């Protein structure tokens, strides 16, 4: 995008006016200390964006100001950052009623997937939509879907066997694209009885558009961040053509087309008396229902798009990070392979849940260190008083055990930073060390698991906030964890993974903005994660 100095001046004026208006509505600042506003337009976002690792900065601020503090947001607003377990438990218990989507979150979600999605719904609407979808994600449902997860994993395995066959020393495989295709095909079959077929070489528009998102610059420019933050106030700004916005528009369109096609197919099947047992079946049933569990056509479409995105983006990012970490730690990879090989057959859903402790530990450790959603933003719909387990600093330098928020106060939950707080997880919190999850054999020490007592104060799945918590906790969690375990179990048993340029090479990985931040090899373009893959026998 090219903006002339005049455009920039006009934007700055607009920013100032909007900033002024926004600031006025947020004037009743919370009584907390926090880092100074060192960028007028972007506030603390600038420092977070410039930091090599935002999680380190969040933690440093927590040490300086206490476990709840104020940061300045773009255009004059403030936000309360919560990093205290008791405060977080309170916050999540009041989701959808006291804490709701921000205007910015709503604006972008609606632009991408339309109005009426579960993701930004609150109150009774959220309750109704969630109740309607929940049966599709029950334990019984996921137990059945495990077979679908295996099918996808085996399709990749077979393709890799063929790639490697001609190369005794293994092949360089761009694993991220494979994990993308595994996730997309899986959510298609599992959620909508539709095979996108990307694992078998079929083109899928959705996959191609998702893929093109990975070619944006690694760090957003100041101008892009500004436009991003102004967009809810001045929607036409979003229409200024940029590579990213045109891809997002295309993504909405291609998800719309495939959803429309699948919905009309399922409607026809229903008319013929055939019932689809996957999530799309639930949606169509709700669309035709006059009970309290109905959904409008607009809502049905929005949930379809939400499920494609949620099923695709997050799971593929997690699985890609797993292969990266394992490629960098051959010792851990071997230990995992040994556990899986000793097991012999393909584990069932129940065996994944109750056995295979090292696989469970590796998966937990990846989810802890690389949560695909690194932050959550909310806004208080009403005033609230949040209790803390450790006192925090007030604006005047005193200490308080409660945070008072006003109606309209922004909330920021830095998931990734909380998952790796040294005050909770110990001095090696930022290290990839799956064995931290194994229970200690020393009597009296950590019967329920090896993780420290301090970390257990955090609620959420396995004391992490990766799947969020409370009434809006990830609906697809069991789906995602089971898919993750299934795919890893097949791939790690059959293949070994090594950094592209050899085990001792100094290759590093960084993140690049896809829809969510995605891993890529540092210094190379696109979302590439090439690894050397060999057969494991
Ligand atoms: C590793 C994989 C995944 C992670 C880390 C993850 C994480 C999350 C998080 C943090 C949220 C809360 C977002 C918010 O409130 O703003 C969420 C919501 C949601 N996720 Fe996931 N997710 C994953 C996979 C999936 C899958 C595979 C599906 C479905 C097939 C799914 C479906 C959903 C849905 C429907 C919601 C909205 C729930 C609500 O608002 O009540 N997720 N997920
Ligand atoms: C993934 O799927 C897309 C389909 O759109 C295809 O272009 C790409 O080649 C596939 N990649 C792999 C590694 O299978
Ligand atoms: C998203 O796509 C739908 C068609 O599926 C279209 O009606 C809608 O206007 C699009 N929204 C945006 C913001 O482009
Ligand atoms: C060579 C090898 O280990 N092959 C294994 C590939 O994975 C399947 C199941 O995950 C096993 O049955 C094979 O033995």
Structure explained in plain terms:
The strands form 4 sheets. This protein has a 5-stranded mixed β-sheet. A 3-stranded antiparallel β-sheet has the order 4-12-9. The chain has a two-stranded antiparallel ribbon with strand order 6-7. The model is unreliable at about 440-450 (pLDDT under 50). Strand 1 and strand 2 form a beta hairpin. The longest helix has about 30 residues, at about 295-330. It has a domain at about 30-100 and about 375-430: Uridine Diphospho-n-acetylenolpyruvylglucosamine Reductase, domain 2. Helices cover about 50% and strands about 10% of the residues. The chain starts with a helix and ends with a strand. The relative contact order is 0.16. The chain contains 21 helices and 12 strands. The chain is an alpha+beta fold and about 525 residues long. The structure holds protoporphyrin IX containing FE and 2-acetamido-2-deoxy-beta-D-glucopyranose (NAG) (3 copies). One 2-acetamido-2-deoxy-beta-D-glucopyranose (NAG) binds next to helix 12. The site of one 2-acetamido-2-deoxy-beta-D-glucopyranose has 6 residues, from helix 21. Belongs to the cytochrome P450 family.
């Amino acid at each position: 995008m090219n903006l002339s100095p005049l455009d920039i001046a006009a934007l700055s004026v607009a920013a100032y006016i909007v900033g002024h208006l926004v600031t006025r509505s947020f004037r009743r600042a919370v009584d907390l200390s926090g880092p100074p506003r060192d960028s007028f337009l972007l506030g603390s976002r600038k420092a977070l964006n410039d930091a090599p690792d935002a999680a380190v900065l969040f933690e440093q601020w927590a040490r300086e100001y206490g476990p709840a503090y104020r940061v300045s947001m773009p255009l004059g607003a403030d936000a309360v950052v919560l990093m205290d377990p008791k405060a977080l438990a309170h916050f999540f218990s009041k989701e959808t009623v006291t804490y709701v989507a921000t205007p910015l979150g709503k604006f972008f979600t609606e632009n991408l997937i339309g109005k009426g999605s579960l993701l930004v719904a609150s109150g009774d609407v959220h309750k109704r939509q969630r109740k309607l979808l929940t049966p599709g994600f029950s334990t019984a449902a996921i137990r059945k879907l495990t077979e679908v997860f295996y099918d996808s994993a085996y399709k990749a395995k077979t393709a890799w066997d063929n790639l490697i066959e001609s190369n005794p020393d293994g092949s360089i495989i761009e694993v991220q694209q494979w994990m993308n295709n595994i996730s997309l095909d899986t959510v298609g079959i599992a959620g909508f009885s539709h095979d996108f077929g990307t694992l078998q070489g079929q083109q899928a528009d959705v996959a191609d558009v998702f893929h093109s998102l990975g070619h944006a610059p690694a760090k957003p420019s100041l101008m892009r961040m500004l436009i991003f933050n102004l967009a809810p106030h001045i929607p036409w700004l979003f229409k200024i053509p940029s590579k990213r916005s045109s891809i997002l528009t295309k993504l909405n369109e291609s998800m719309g087309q495939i959803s429309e096609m699948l919905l009309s197919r399922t409607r026809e099947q229903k008319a013929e008396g055939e019932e689809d047992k996957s999530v799309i079946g639930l949606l169509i049933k709700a669309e035709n229902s006059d009970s309290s569990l109905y959904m409008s056509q607009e809502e049905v479409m929005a949930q379809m798009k939400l499920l494609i995105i949620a099923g695709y983006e997050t799971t593929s990012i997690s699985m890609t990070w797993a292969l990266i970490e394992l490629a960098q730690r051959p010792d851990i990879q071997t230990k995992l392979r040994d556990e899986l090989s000793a097991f012999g057959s393909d584990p069932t859903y129940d065996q994944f849940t109750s056995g295979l402790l090292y696989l469970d530990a590796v998966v937990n450790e990846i989810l802890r260190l690389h949560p695909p959603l690194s932050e959550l933003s909310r806004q208080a719909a009403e005033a609230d008083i949040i209790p803390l387990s450790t006192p925090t600093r007030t604006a005047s330098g005193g200490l308080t055990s409660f945070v008072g928020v006003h109606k309209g106060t922004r909330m920021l939950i830095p998931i990734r930073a909380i998952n790796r707080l040294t005050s909770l997880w110990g001095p090696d919190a930022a290290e990839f060390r799956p064995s931290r999850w194994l229970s200690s054999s020393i009597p009296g020490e950590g019967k329920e698991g090896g993780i420290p007592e301090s970390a257990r104060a955090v609620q959420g799945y396995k004391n992490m906030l990766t799947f969020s918590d409370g009434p809006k906790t990830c609906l697809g969690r069991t789906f995602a964890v089971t898919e993750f375990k299934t795919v890893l179990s097949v791939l790690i048993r059959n293949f070994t993974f090594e950094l592209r340029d050899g085990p001792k090479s100094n290759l590093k990985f960084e993140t690049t903005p896809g829809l969510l931040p995605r891993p890529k090899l540092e210094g190379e373009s696109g979302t590439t994660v090439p690894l050397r893959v060999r057969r494991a026998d």
